[in-house]
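Progress against Task 2.4 (sequence-to-structure conversion) is shown through the following example record, which the project officer requested during the mid-term review.
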Amino acid sequence: MKGGNIAVSDFFTIPNNLLHGAIEPPVPATVSFAVLWGGAGTRIKLRDTVNGFAGNFLENTASILWSASSGGLQYQSGPAGTSVSVFAEVGHERNGSFFP
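Structure tokens generated for the chain above:
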């Protein structure tokens, strides 16, 4: 999965973001990323009729390479090969009105 030069707002802190910039106005920023998924992993199929939830998932490994710029500053992750994957999952779920 990749995204390049995506325009976002930098709110600087979580409280400022939750208050929609009431503490300090956000500044324009950009982010780029590439998520690298591992090979085949454990497949999981769930169906919970009591809570109205079903899904098919694949547990796997993943690493990410990312960069961001905000207010004239630039940030960049180390190479994707230096990250450690603890848990990754991708899948398809159905709930609410989409639950069969």
